[in-house]
Amino acid sequence: MINIDKQVNDFLQKYNELNNSFSKSLVFGVGLEAGFYSEFNNMALAILYCLENKIKLYLHSSKSNFGKWTDFFEPFCIEKNNCYTDKFDHRFSAKNLTNKQKIREKIVKIIGKIYGINYLTYDLFETIHNLEEKYYNIEKLNISGTTQQICGEIIRNIYRFNSQTINAIEQLTNKIAFEQPYIGFHIRGGDKIIEHEIMAIDSYVQKAEQLTEIRNAFIFTDDYIMFETFQKKHPQWNIKTLTNSSETGYFHNEFQQQNALQKRNELIKMFASIEILRNAQQIFCTYSSNIGMFLGMIEDNTIQYNTIQYNTIQYNTIPKLSVLIWKNGIFGKKSTQFI
């Protein structure tokens, strides 16, 4: 039997030896701007970028909108949480700087070098976010593959809840018990409509009924109306959710207004929902969602990229993860094998 913990520990030991061997450094702030999985996905890209470009990555989480990294997860690298990073680290760089602002920026960089920091998040974020899709070979970590494959390998080794988080998650997952196999749906509402048209529930159900005879499902949604609509339109399904009837969609600005305990409870429920999805026989989600993107990376799969047209729904199916895509851009056909 493969010892997963030993594999992870070996990977992290090798990663930190390699990461700490680089002379230049980036402090990457997680939780500076967006929702958790947007931040997490970009952090995975940042790790890959730094490995490829021989830059030491320090994590910065003391300014995070969800709490420090170790409030929820096991540590995986050195953190730089101090007055300098808290004050000057942010996600995006300022545009059209005045002469006075340019002088200030130079002073910030001089101070950064005193702290042993060459780059802050905003220096490299746009480059990282738009990381080139290509084949990578990180020999010292014995990993190679596409951007998504490498990020998946990274994620599987750093996405490790601490014991307190595990206990809290299990209290919620134990409430959702199916006597028979079930499938999972992630149906996003809320502020996602700002970025993409919300896909109709019938699109998910139609594809699920084509691919499986299972009619037990867990619904992960930020809007309880999605759950109610599903229930009313498809009464033949046995569905469950952790979403409360008071929830009407995730809006990041509203999340920011919550206190620390409220944020923690919301995140624990989200983490629990993700774990329930990952234990489903199949998952149906959209790749335009950061959660769909995360699931596509953490589950072991490969991608071949193809261009698709705007407003054309393309179903890309792998044995477990079925991704519904309707974005103008480049996405891919997916295949995978699961243990």
- Give, in order, the helices and strands: HEHEHHHEEHHEHEHEHHEHEEEE
Question: Helical element count?
Answer: 12
Number of strands: 12
Tell me what the CATH architecture of the largest domain is. Answer: 3-Layer(aba) Sandwich
Rough outline: globular
The biggest beta sheet is recorded as: 6 strands, mixed
Strand order of the largest sheet: 7-6-5-8-11-10
Mean pLDDT figure: 83
Helix content: 40-55%
Instruction: State Rg.
Output: 21 Å
**Which CATH class of the largest domain applies here?**
Alpha Beta
Number of domains: 2
Oligomer class? single chain
Extract low-pLDDT stretches: 191-198, 302-318, 325-339
The first-to-last residue Cα distance is: 12 Å
State which percent range the strand residues make up. 15-25%
CATH topology of the largest domain: Rossmann fold
Helix-and-strand structural type: alpha/beta
Description of the structure:
Mean pLDDT is 83; it is low at 191-198, 302-318 and 325-339. The protein is globular, with a radius of gyration of 21 Å. Strands 7-6-5-8-11-10 form a 6-stranded mixed β-sheet, sandwiched between helices. It has a two-stranded parallel sheet with strand order 1-2. By secondary structure, it is α/β, with parallel strands linked by helices. The chain is 42% helix and 18% strand. β10 (314-317) and β11 (321-325) form a beta hairpin. The protein has 2 domains: 4-158, no CATH class; 163-336, 3-Layer(aba) Sandwich (Rossmann fold). α2 (36-53) crosses α6 (147-158), α6 crosses α12 and α7 crosses α11 (260-278).
